[in-house]
Write a structure and sequence with these properties.
GO molecular function: efflux transmembrane transporter activity
CATH superfamily of the domain at 49-117 and 182-323 and 383-472: Outer membrane efflux proteins (OEP)
Number of helices: 11
Membrane topology: Lipid-anchor
Strand content: 5-15%
Helix content: 55-70%
CATH architecture of the domain at 49-117 and 182-323 and 383-472: Up-down Bundle
Oligomer: single chain
CATH class of the domain at 49-117 and 182-323 and 383-472: Mainly Alpha
Order of helices and strands: HHEHHHEEHHEHHEEHH
Structural class: alpha+beta
Pfam families: OEP
Radius of gyration: 39 Å
Number of strands: 6
Keywords: Lipoprotein, Membrane, Palmitate, Plasmid, Transmembrane, Transmembrane beta strand, Transmembrane helix
Subcellular location: Cell membrane
Length: about 475
């Protein structure tokens, strides 16, 4: 090929490229002007208001104690065995693993949405061979093509931007939902542990009481044989022994269920030989959750509900923008020749640039229906957020009231235990001097056992309520 021919080919290529650049700038200008109108179609998201919860009383929620929501679970729970159980739960629990997989799924969708502005590009190569019939003869024909295709949709009405924001909200929602799952698992594990140690303490108390009552039954039978007691006392003593045995069986069943709950949560077998006691659990004397509105804002379930509203809001923007024209720009270029040796020459070079504007007219009401449904879903998501906020404030208010009630009940039960312990000693002394019967001993012993069991249960309830408060203000995430 001589220099003149080469120069002509270079000039032809430059003209083709120049024409393509002008066309791209033209359609780019259309996009720029059209994008200015996107603000007239899609709306900017505004976060819902966190109104002051009507059920809260600041003087009962705020104090000078531990602000529980600011502590990680490793710092909040002091029992080393409980920390091991929680750690095992977060590692092995199936619900937590499922939540993690959902985060990965949402993350992949969000990555796709982030590049929604970028054109799609494809490359294809083709060799076509045909045998054409002509006068009972076959004339072979070949075509060699190497082309690239580019397609791009202009975000005139903000549909692509809204789709990106919706996917981002859904991704953040999945991340927050995993935090919600973690707070729930931490609370469930702690509650199951506190229930188990309370049951173990109750069992020790019942076993000790059973030994005492069996000895008392033997003494009553001996007194009856000596003519110093009656059949009523014997039957009462036997009934007291049987009642403790029944409580021990019920305790055994409850221990098995609590242990199985921990096994299910932690995903493995448990070594519960070194369980702590209820009295060993160090907790703050006063509980401070901070400003009520901020406490609710920190809750993962409230955050999930707000993000769901945001996703529904952006989905409505998408449905609304779908009613307007769509501007697409497509470009194709490459080399095409019927001769292999001239495939990659200037004479085989081709390019095409197409700009299209599509306005939906009759879609069997599909797009308008989608818009109406998306609008209803947006309003539904807002109502769900408001409902979640109210339920969260109700729960936290109830938990704070219950915690205070358990604190006061514990003080009363401890005083009651002191009185009944002294009453039991006095009954034994009176019996020695013949001023009391063995029925008086049994009555005092029964009352003391009941208050001691109530004391253990009340302390367990107080601990579980404190865990509920910790979860209710978003605690348990690290």
């Amino acid at each position: 090929m001589d220099s003149g021919t080469l120069a002509k080919e270079e000039t032809s290529v430059m003209k083709t490229l120049k024409r393509s650049y002008i066309q791209v700038l033209y359609f780019g200008l259309i996009f720029l002007l059209g994008s200015l109108s996107s603000c007239l179609v899609t709306k900017k998201f505004q976060a819902p208001e966190y109104d002051e919860p009507p059920l809260f009383s600041l003087d009962t929620l705020s104090g000078s104690g531990l602000r529980v929501g600011n502590y990680g679970w490793r710092a909040f729970f002091t029992d080393s065995l409980l920390r091991k159980f929680i750690d095992s739960t977060l590692q092995n629990n199936y619900d937590n693993q499922i939540a993690y997989e959902r985060v990965l799924q949402a993350q992949s969708s969000f990555k796709q949405g982030k590049i929604g502005y970028i054109p799609t590009l494809s490359l294809s190569g083709q060799v076509e061979h045909q045998d054409l019939s002509s006068a009972f003869q076959f004339a072979p024909s070949e075509q060699y093509t190497l082309s690239g295709a580019l397609s791009w949709e202009a975000d005139i009405w903000g549909k692509i931007t809204s789709a990106k924001r919706m996917l981002k909200a859904q991704f953040q929602q999945s991340v927050t939902a995993k935090k919600l799952m973690q707070t729930q698992l931490v609370a469930k594990t702690a509650n199951a542990y506190y229930a188990l140690i309370a049951l173990k303490e109750s069992r020790i108390l019942l076993e000790r009481t059973l030994v005492l009552r069996e000895r008392g039954l033997i003494s009553t039978i001996r007194l009856f044989d000596a003519g110093m007691s009656n059949q009523l006392a014997v039957e009462q003593a036997r009934a007291q022994v049987e009642s403790v045995r029944v409580m021990l069986e019920e305790n055994k069943r409850s221990v098995t269920m609590a242990t199985n709950t921990l096994i299910m949560l932690t995903g493995g077998s448990l070594q519960t030989m070194n369980l702590g006691t209820v009295e060993d659990q160090r907790t703050p004397e006063t509980v401070d959750v901070g400003v009520p509105v901020e406490a609710l804002r920190n809750r993962p379930d409230v955050q999930v509900s707000e993000l769901a509203f945001r996703a529904a809001f952006e989905n409505f923007n998408i449905a609304k923008a779908s009613l307007y024209p769509t501007l697409t720009i497509s470009a194709m270029g490459g080399f095409q020749s019927s001769e292999f040796d001239k495939w990659f020459t200037s004479s085989s070079l081709f390019n095409t640039l197409i700009g299209g504007l599509t306005q939906p007219i009759f879609m069997t009401r599909k797009l308008r229906t989608q818009k109406e449904i998306a609008d209803s879903q947006r309003r539904e998501a807002l109502l769900d957020f408001q409902k979640t906020l109210l339920e969260a404030s109700t729960e936290l208010s109830n938990l704070m009231e219950s915690y205070g009630a358990y604190q006061r009940s514990l003080l009363e039960l401890r005083r009651q235990e002191e009185h009944l312990s002294r009453a039991f000693v006095i009954a034994e002394q009176l019996m020695e001097y013949g001023n009391a019967t063995y029925l008086d001993i049994l009555t005092a012993q029964e009352a003391l056992l009941n208050v001691q069991l109530s004391l253990i249960q009340a302390e367990s309830n107080r601990l579980q309520t404190l865990v509920g408060i910790y979860r209710a203000v978003g605690g348990g995430v690290e």
